[in-house]
């Protein structure tokens, strides 16, 4: 699929990687001009994002809910004024590839954690089932309301990486799917939208230790 095949009004995810930081930002297609897609100006934390740094790597992801997500790699985004209005102009050198996030190595944790949503700022006790650099799965004793699905804050600690201190993991996520459990609880599969720098090291170290134990 080419970028030019997208339609006006479609939602995209711009995955921005800078060093060990990974942030997902929402974008909306405003118009198509040849092979360039004009996006409504992208904001993060109420600021218009500057993608001009050569150290920033961008991936554009499109999900239609009917097929595997499609991704364009090595994307470029620049500010552009068209017909007197400012946009973020998106271009990609190659057609999209299908993305199967389940191919990304994940670790089974089964560790206690805390889920924070707007309606429960003090947190809900959950069980973090599994984790990878793209997603997280957890069990909750209570249902998370749909209006909360787009912004979950999850944190937990693990003592197995460093014997001298706990490793604290904090991520932000959005719900991709959910399943009601026989015990009355709920299982949620989520895509990470923001994570701290230590996440990649933590997952890699857990995978390494799992392999050494086999």
What is the structure about, briefly put?
With 214 residues, the chain is mainly beta. It has one helix at residues 198-213; strands at residues 11-18, 21-33, 36-39, 43-44, 47-48, 56-62, 70-72, 76-82, 85-91, 97-98, 107-117, 120-131, 135-140, 152-158, 167-180, 186-195.
Can you tell me about this structure?
It is a single chain. The protein is mainly beta and 214 residues long. Helix content is 7%, strand content 54%. The protein has 1 helix and 16 strands. The protein has one helix spanning 198-213, and strands at 11-18, 21-33, 36-39, 43-44, 47-48, 56-62, 70-72, 76-82, 85-91, 97-98, 107-117, 120-131, 135-140, 152-158, 167-180, 186-195. The strands form 2 sheets. The chain has a 6-stranded antiparallel barrel with strand order 11-12-13-16-15-14. Strands 4-5 form a two-stranded antiparallel sheet. The longest helix is centred in the C-terminal third of the chain and has 16 residues, at 198-213. The chain is globular and about 55 Å long. The model has no long low-confidence stretch (mean pLDDT 86).
* Uncertain segments: none
Helical stretch count?
Answer: 1
Radius of gyration: 19 Å
What is the spatial order of strands in the main beta sheet? 11-12-13-16-15-14
Strand content is over 45%
What's the helix-strand series?
Answer: EEEEEEEEEEEEEEEEH
Overall residue-averaged pLDDT value? 86
Main sheet summary: 6 strands, antiparallel, barrel
Helix coverage percent: under 10%
């Amino acid at each position: 699929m080419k970028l030019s095949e997208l339609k006006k009004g479609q939602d995209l995810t711009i995955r921005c990687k800078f060093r060990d930081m990974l942030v997902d930002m929402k974008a909306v297609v405003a118009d198509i001009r040849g092979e360039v897609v004009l996006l409504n100006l992208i904001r993060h934390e109420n600021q218009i994002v500057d993608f001009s740094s050569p150290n920033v790597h961008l991936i554009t992801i499109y999900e239609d809910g009917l097929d595997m997500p499609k991704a364009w790699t090595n994307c470029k985004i620049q500010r552009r004024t068209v017909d007197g209005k400012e946009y973020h102009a998106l271009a990609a050198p190659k057609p999209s590839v299908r993305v199967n996030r389940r191919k990304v190595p994940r670790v089974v944790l089964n560790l206690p954690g805390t889920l924070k949503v707007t309606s429960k700022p003090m947190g809900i006790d959950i069980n973090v089932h599994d984790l990878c650099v793209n997603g997280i799965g957890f069990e909750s004793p209570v249902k998370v309301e749909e209006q909360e699905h787009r912004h979950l804050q999850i944190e937990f600690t693990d003592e197995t990486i460093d014997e001298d201190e706990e490793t604290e993991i904090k991520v932000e996520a959005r719900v991709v799917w959910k399943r009601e459990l026989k015990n009355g609880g709920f299982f949620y599969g989520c895509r990470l939208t923001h994570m701290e720098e230590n996440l990649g090291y933590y997952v890699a170290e857990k995978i390494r230790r799992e392999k050494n134990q086999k």
